[in-house]
Every structure is written in structure tokens, then in C-alpha cells.
Design goal:
Blueprint: H1 25-61, H2 69-81, H3 85-97, H4 105-117, H5 121-130, H6 155-159, H7 164-177, H8 184-195, H9 215-220, H10 229-246, H11 251-260, H12 262-268, H13 275-288, H14 306-316
Protein name: Transglycosylase SLT domain-containing protein
Keywords: Signal
Family: Belongs to the transglycosylase Slt family.
Length: about 325
């Protein structure tokens, strides 16, 4: 089976969030800005997915690096998880042809169906060769158990295709994460979503640096030089560690707290109905592929909303 070259494209992984019914005019105006920031966060993840897909192409074909089909497949899979349609098609092609992977029409059919649903014409044509869609999903696309610490995930694979400046910041995030008992994957997800690893970033709300600390949060976690990359990252990781303890390891609530503040999470007893925050949480969960994270209960008492929110989360499995 032949495979042509196609232009890269991204898609809305989880879609825009609905605004709360009955919002007042001031909230609606704020949500315009929120939607714009949410779209910017989504663009960061789409860009990262393209990085991974491009790196996968290099390893699949030996372009500038040693040819490693298995590594290419892993990179394609991670990119597909983040919504890259070309990665879905390419991984499906590898399964359909048994190139570096065990041949599986069932897995190929699933991946082609995913890509075709998103408008990939060649994937739609390839479905005639793989048979009817039967719902088989490759193991690499299955979310790992909540207790597993990011099995098979490689920070270096995500960092490798970045620019030199972004690599330096990304490695600092990953290296420091262990000091705060935070998964490197979660630390990188927050840093990418916040600033795209820009140590000089400033938001309209005066959030500063890699981890986009507002002045109050910087002071709370003893950050005196917010544009010093290491000091800023340490402050952001300290806050994230506190949020994980406060929300008892719930990644969605911790991410929502990081974006909107823990009081907003408590006010709405879950992820607030702000377009920016819901898009933010969606990006982080898509990157993480799991909802739970280890935490140190000694850091702080739990939020008073935790028992009820955890019950809803366990029953519904969603945000």
C-alpha cells in the first residue's frame, strides 16, 4: 500500500466548552478573552503534536537520525493522542503494512477511521483495505492506569524537536519536577500550556515567566525574580504541588486551580465554567492521559469540596 505526503493539520481535541447559562454581560466579555487564551493554549499543544509527528517521520525513514520504526510508532502514537491527524494516519499505515509493528488491520482500521472522521481523505480511502471498523484500539492509545507513573513516556522524545532555547527551559522543568514530587509529564504540560516555555512571557493579567505566576502567587511561594527561569519554575512547581495536595491528587482540579485559582474551583465545586479554564484542563488531561497523581497529604488539609467532587468524578469519569 502506498502512502502520500499530506499537509499537517490540527483539530479541536475536546472542543470549546459551553458557557454557564445565565452569565451576565461582564462575564461574557471576560469569556471572550478567556476563549482567546484557551485557543492559544490549544495551539501550543497542536504545535507540540506536530513536533512529535515530524520527529516520528524522521525516525521512520531515517532522515537525519538512525532509522528506528518502533520509536517512530511511539512518537506517532503520542502525537495522535494530542490530536494530530497525520500521526493517526501514519500510525495506521504502519499497522496496515506491518512496518516496525505487528500487522493489524483492526488497529489500522481504527486509526484510519479516526483520521477520516477528521477529514483525512487518504485515510478514508485506506479503510477499504482494512475492513470494517471493529473498535480495536492499540495499547499505546489506551490511557495508563492511574497508579502507573507515565509508563513508556519519554521527556527527551518530547523535547528533542524543540528549538535550543525551549529545550533548555523544558529540561529545567523536567529536572526540577522531581524535587517537588511532580510527574515530569505534568510539569511539562503546565509549562507548555502556560507560556510555551517562554521565560519572558507576560500576560494581560500580569502573569509572569515560564509558569505564568501572578504577583500574589509569586509572593506566596517566595519568588523574588519572576523572570529568572529557575526561580519561576520552582515557584510554579511549589504551587502545583500544593494544589495536588489540596485537591488530593485530582489532576483536573489542580490544573483548574492553577489556571483560575483554588477558590474558583471551590465556588463551582469542580472545574469552573470559564472557557479558558475548561480548555486549559482539557489540554492538560489530553497530555497526561490520566486523572490521578500522587500527592503528599502532609502539605495541607484537603479542600472541603473533595469528598463530593471525588464521588462525582468516580461515578461519571469526567470533568
Amino acid at each position: 500500500m502506498g502512502r502520500g505526503l499530506h499537509a499537517s493539520r490540527s483539530f479541536h481535541l475536546l472542543g470549546g466548552a459551553l458557557l454557564a447559562a445565565g452569565s451576565c454581560a461582564s462575564l461574557a466579555a471576560a469569556d471572550v478573552h478567556s476563549a482567546e487564551k484557551g485557543a492559544a493554549a490549544e495551539a501550543v499543544f497542536a504545535e507540540h503534536a506536530r513536533y512529535l509527528a515530524d520527529l516520528a517521520v524522521a525516525y521512520e525513514h531515517g532522515e537525519g537520525v538512525a532509522r528506528e520504526p518502533a520509536r517512530a510508532a511511539a512518537l506517532y502514537c503520542e502525537s495522535a493522542r494530542l490530536g494530530n491527524v497525520e500521526a493517526m494516519y501514519s500510525l495506521g499505515w504502519m499497522y496496515a503494512n506491518g512496518r516496525g509493528l505487528g500487522r493489524s488491520d483492526a488497529y489500522a482500521g481504527t486509526l484510519f477511521a479516526m483520521a477520516a472522521f477528521l477529514g483525512h481523505a487518504q485515510a478514508d480511502r485506506m479503510r477499504r483495505y482494512t475492513g470494517e471498523y471493529v473498535g480495536a484500539v492499540p495499547a499505546c492509545l489506551q490511557p495508563p492506569p492511574d497508579t502507573a507513573p507515565d509508563p513508556g513516556w519519554s521527556a527527551e522524545a518530547h523535547i528533542a524537536a524543540m528549538s535550543a532555547q525551549r529545550k533548555q527551559v523544558a529540561r529545567l522543568v523536567v529536572d526540577l519536577s522531581s524535587e517537588y514530587a511532580i510527574s515530569p509529564k505534568l510539569a511539562l504540560a503546565i509549562a507548555l500550556t502556560e507560556s510555551n516555555l517562554d521565560a519572558a512571557a507576560v500576560s494581560p493579567k500580569s502573569a509572569m515567566g515560564v509558569m505564568q505566576l501572578i504577583p500574589e502567587t509569586a509572593a506566596r511561594f517566595n519568588v523574588r525574580k519572576p523572570f529568572d527561569a529557575e526561580e519561576n519554575i520552582r515557584g510554579g512547581l511549589a504551587y502545583l504541588r500544593w494544589l495536588l495536595a489540596y485537591f488530593r491528587g485530582d489532576i483536573a482540579l489542580a490544573a483548574a486551580g492553577y489556571n483560575a485559582g483554588e477558590r474558583a474551583v471551590e465556588r463551582y465545586r469542580g472545574v469552573p465554567p470559564y472557557a479558558e479554564t475548561q480548555a486549559y484542563v482539557a489540554r492538560v488531561l489530553a497530555f497526561m492521559q490520566r486523572r490521578r497523581h500522587a500527592y503528599d497529604s502532609r502539605i495541607t488539609e484537603p479542600s472541603p469540596i473533595i469528598p463530593g467532587v471525588q464521588h462525582v468524578s468516580e461515578r461519571e469519569g469526567g470533568l
